[in-house]
C-alpha cells in the first residue's frame, strides 16, 4: 500500500505538468492525445482531482480568438472531451440548436458549464457542500441534475428567464443508495 500511495502522489504531482503542456504545443500531437486518452480511459482516477483544471485547459485550446490554435487542436480536444464525457459521471454534454454545452462537476461541489462554440465559461454555480459525483444535463439543456455520494443527495436545477441556472434547486432529494 505504501508503494501504491507513493505512485499515486508522484502521478498526482505530474498531472499539473501534463495539463500545462497540453495548452501549448503538445495537444497538437497525436502522441500527447494518446497519453491523455490512456489516462482518461485506462486510469481515470489519476486525473480525477485535476479534472476541472484539465477541462479548463482543453477549453482554452478551442478559443476562437486564437484561430490557429483552435484549428490545430479542434479534433484532438473534441476527442478528449468525448472520452471524458463517456468516462467520468461528473461530466455531461448537450448539443443544442445554437450551442453546445459541457457541464463539469468538481470536488468542491461546483458545476461549471462551458459553451464549446465560444470556448467560454457559460455558468458556474455551487450545488453541493461535498464533491459532485455525477451530473446529467437534459436533452433540451434546460435542466441539470447533480448527485453527491457524500451527501447522498440529488438536486435538480433549471435555466431561468435570464438564461442562467437557478441559484437554488427546483428539487432536492436525499437518496437511499450508496453506503
Give a brief outline of the structure.
With 179 residues, this protein is an alpha+beta fold. The chain has helices at residues 2-23, 30-42, 44-48, 51-60, 67-87; strands at residues 91-95, 100-105, 110-115, 120-126, 134-137, 143-148, 153-158, 171-174. Helix 1 packs parallel to helix 4 (51-60) and helix 2 packs parallel to helix 5.
Structure description:
This protein folds into two domains: about 1-90, no CATH class; about 90-179, Thrombin, subunit H (Beta Barrel). It is built from five helices and eight strands. It has helices spanning about 1-25, 30-40, 45-50, 50-60, 65-85, and strands spanning about 90-95, 100-105, 110-115, 120-125, 135, 145-150, 155-160, 170-175. A hairpin with a 5-residue loop joins strand 5 and strand 6 (about 145-150).
What structural class is derived from the secondary structure elements? Answer: alpha+beta
In percent, how much strand structure appears in the residues?
A: 15-25%
Estimate the mean pLDDT confidence: 80
The arrangement of helices and strands along the chain is: HHHHHEEEEEEEE
CATH topology of the largest domain: Thrombin, subunit H
Q: How many alpha or pi helices?
A: 5
Strand arrangement in the largest pleated sheet: 1-2-3-4
- State the major sheet: 4 strands, antiparallel
Amino acid at each position: 500500500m505504501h508503494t501504491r500511495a507513493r505512485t499515486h502522489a508522484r502521478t498526482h504531482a505530474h498531472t499539473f505538468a501534463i495539463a500545462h503542456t497540453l495548452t501549448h504545443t503538445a495537444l497538437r500531437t497525436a502522441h500527447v492525445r494518446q497519453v491523455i486518452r490512456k489516462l482518461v480511459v485506462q486510469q481515470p482516477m489519476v486525473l480525477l482531482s485535476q479534472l476541472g483544471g484539465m477541462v479548463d485547459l482543453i477549453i482554452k485550446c478551442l478559443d476562437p480568438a486564437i484561430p490557429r490554435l483552435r484549428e490545430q487542436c479542434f479534433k484532438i480536444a473534441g476527442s478528449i472531451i468525448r472520452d471524458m464525457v463517456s468516462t467520468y459521471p461528473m461530466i455531461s454534454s448537450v448539443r443544442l440548436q445554437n450551442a453546445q454545452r459541457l457541464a463539469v462537476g468538481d470536488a468542491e461541489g461546483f458545476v461549471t458549464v462551458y459553451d464549446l462554440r465560444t470556448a467560454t465559461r457559460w455558468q458556474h454555480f455551487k450545488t453541493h457542500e461535498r464533491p459532485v459525483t455525477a451530473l446529467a444535463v437534459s436533452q433540451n439543456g434546460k435542466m441539470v441534475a447533480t448527485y453527491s455520494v457524500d451527501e447522498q443527495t440529488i438536486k435538480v436545477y433549471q435555466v431561468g428567464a435570464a438564461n442562467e441556472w437557478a441559484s437554488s434547486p427546483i428539487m432536492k432529494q436525499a437518496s437511499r443508495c450508496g453506503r
